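Revision sheet: structure tokens.
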Amino acid sequence: MDAPEALALLMSPSGRIDPYPTYERLRAHGPVVQAGPVFYLVTGYDEADTILRDPRFGVLDDTLRDQLFPGWRNSPAISSVARSMLRTNPPDHSRMRRLAAGAFTPRRVAALREAVVVQADELVDAMVERGRAGAPVDFMAEFAYPLPVGVICALLGVPAADRPLFRRWAADLTEMLEPEFTPAQLVAADRGAAELSAYFADLVAARRRAPADDLTTALVQAHDADGDRLSGDELLANLVVLLVAGFETTTNLLGNGLVVLLERPRAADTLRARPDLAPDYVEELLRYDSPVQLTSRTSIAPATVGGVDLPAGAWAMLLLGAANRDPRRWPEPAAFDPWRPPAQPLSFGAGPHYCLGAGLARLEAQVALPLLLRRLPGLALAGRPRHRARLTLRGYETLPVTIDTQARAPQDGTPARTGAGTP
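Predicted:
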């Protein structure tokens, strides 16, 4: 199978549901493979990491966007994301990122741990109530979504009563982060972007009237003090992106991670008995089934990566899910093994666009997964989870589980090592 054929398979519904076999077909052609006149696919870890950090590469700019999406300025979804730090290059990207970075310092993230524990405990209590008498509970709706959305909304100052609004709006908006989307999906994305922008316009007005100790107030004050630091369009665009990015990745990490653990009882037993191992488990879950599978960069100047010459103006699709299973970096990469030596996965990117909320996402997963296993030792899959037909943001649409509150956790105080290949 040549690279264009593999790419077509990857974009198909079955390829999106399980991209990993297609990644290996692409890897057979080398870590960087040309799939079109100026289009390249990157499966290698070192090569993807290089491109993410190299100043000769950037995100899609307005000039190229004009060529690919004429009239994009009339699309609320495309224009909103384009005006955010997610899709801008330095110096605009650096300027906007600095304004929000203070809310995500390691010290401030660590200070949120107790609040995350409290929220997770409350959500488990609600799951137990809903799951009485063996009734299936959708883990995505009852835990994986409300936990991270509650945390990011608290940071932004969004009232708790409004949080259920965002799941559908965000789901619609993020359709346009996929490599391909239909006109109907763009219409839905535009609708989601318009709803989110209108919501934050109202919140901005409220914070002008009554400032609060939250990130929205900080960004409003930065805009009002100096419009050159943050324009009005950038203010709304970044509030939307901070909200959506603040829960989408973590929601998928929690769902993907829970399935991995429930399918590997020994690994789950070890984490239940040794919650101090959570950081290693979360890093391996990020590597093994990344909640973000790809990103892209364009070359500003000619560059040679992985022995392949990329001309100026080339478009490189970085398959992060494939890079995280590069056998040159990880032995037996298709096995889940939380005992691997530390090796930074690319799930949160690298370089200037490294995910601002990566530390917060890690914290939430490190708290939530051992807590779930400890409090719900009888937690089990109830039927087949259903993946979203997405490639960029990989996760489950529904993940039904049952809760046996009478089950007892293993009493063995010396948990077994869960090595590569452990069932």
